[in-house]
């Protein structure tokens, strides 16, 4: 026992050194997914002078996934802004031990943080409801906020993109931690650094709490799009909610040719068309392979 603490500290230190030394482009994930550490901005995001209109009456808040950042939205946010939506987003769940990344803190803390952000957006935009689009872990924070914190009544539409409604098997966490250069299967190494990861496992205490009494949030219009080529959330149908009125769609049922996995789906025009259709059904166009053009 005497040496347990120092060796754990050393392991963590080695991990941090290796993490900070990894240039983002060397990560074995699609560089187009622009995950973290990049200092670019998304023009028009968080513009509190944006005018809400009868066509776009609510702010749209974008929530990224675990270990990612607001730049997950580098493709979708400009498309929404271009169409006149007032779009907001943040990198939540930061942890000083892993600078440059978000979605690292315990899920309950992240839910509290995004709730406070949504409250601020509503106050500044003078509205009482928002629409939320969330990817992966960002697709369940809203449900926790509504069910256990003070989010009830504040969300009109919720759209999940590869959302982790029912958790993932250890395979998915392994893929994610490997992609990040973390040393799976040494859970003792990643757990203190990214406590949310264990919470995202299927059947974790958190997942049981989240789904207790049902998958859906009464009063919220909910929809999800998932990919059959999912590599982080396994099995892929864990991305679906079960309950009255929920729309669940598989990317490949809209366009068989879509090969996008968990991160690529954030750059899929088919997924984008699905999101646009959900945000404003009155202008919906068929989301299909033609959306790729
Ligand atoms: C906020 O909205 C309410 C109606 O929803 C309106 O009466 C009020 O004038 C608005 N306040 C500002 C500062 O725009
Ligand atoms: C989760 O629990 C259910 C029901 O107890 C079980 O069928 C399922 O195999 C479990 N999943 C995992 C990944 O442990």
From TrEMBL:
UniProt entry keywords in alphabetical sequence: Signal
A single GO BP: lipid catabolic process
Gene3D superfamilies to which the protein is assigned, alphabetical: alpha/beta hydrolase (3.40.50.1820)
Signal peptide residue numbers: 1-26
GO molecular function: lipase activity
InterPro entries associated with the record: AB_hydrolase_fold, Lipase_EstA/Esterase_EstB
UniProt name for this protein: Secreted lipase
Organism of provenance: Lobosporangium transversale
